[in-house]
Design brief:
Helix content is 49%, strand content 14%. It has two domains: 3-49; 61-139, Glutaredoxin (3-Layer(aba) Sandwich). A hairpin with a 2-residue loop joins β4 (117-119) and β5. With 140 residues, it is α+β, with helices and mostly antiparallel strands. It is elongated and about 50 Å long. The protein has a five-stranded mixed beta sheet, with helices on one face.
Length: 140
C-alpha cells in the first residue's frame, strides 16, 4: 500500500471508529495501526490534528456555546462563566458523571437570538446567567 492510500484509509478507519464508539478509544488506535502499518504515535498525531476526532467520549448532553461576534458582544462570556460555575467544566471538558460536555463553536447561525447555546439539537437564545442555570438544572 502506498503512502497516499495509507493516509486515505487511515482517515476512513478513524471516522469509522469514532462513529462506532462516539470517540476513538486507545485499543482502536492500536488495531488501526496494525491494519495500515502506521505507528500509534503517528495515528495519535493525525487524531489530534483534525478537530473532528475525539479521544474521549462526549457527555449525554453536548452543550455548544456560540462564540460568534453577535454572541460575544451580547454576553457569551457571562454565559460561559455561568455554565462553568454550574457544571464545573470548561470548553472541551466533560463532567465526571458523563452527563455534560461543553464545546465552543464559531457560530450557531442564530445571531438574532444571541447569546445562544445548543444542548444536543435544541437551541436556547437570549440567554442570561440566570436562564442558563435554570436550563441546565432541567437536564440534571
Amino acid at each position: 500500500m502506498n503512502l497516499k492510500s495509507q493516509q486515505g484509509s487511515l482517515i476512513k478507519l478513524l471516522q469509522s471508529a469514532q462513529e462506532t464508539y462516539g470517540y476513538i478509544p486507545e485499543p482502536a488506535i492500536y488495531n488501526i495501526s496494525e491494519l495500515v502499518g502506521i505507528s500509534p504515535a503517528e495515528i495519535y498525531g493525525v487524531i489530534t490534528f483534525y478537530s473532528q476526532f475525539r479521544l474521549k467520549p462526549l457527555g449525554k448532553y453536548v452543550i455548544k456555546i456560540c462564540e460568534g461576534t453577535a454572541c460575544h458582544v451580547n454576553g457569551a462570556r457571562e454565559i460561559l462563566r455561568a455554565i462553568k460555575n454550574e457544571l464545573g467544566i470548561g470548553i472541551d471538558e466533560t463532567t465526571d458523571d458523563g452527563l455534560f460536555t461543553m464545546l465552543s463553536v464559531a457560530c450557531l447561525g442564530c445571531c438574532s437570538l444571541s447569546p445562544v447555546i445548543m444542548i444536543n439539537d435544541k437551541t436556547y437564545g437570549k440567554l442570561t446567567p440566570e436562564k442558563i442555570r435554570s436550563i441546565l438544572r432541567e437536564y440534571k
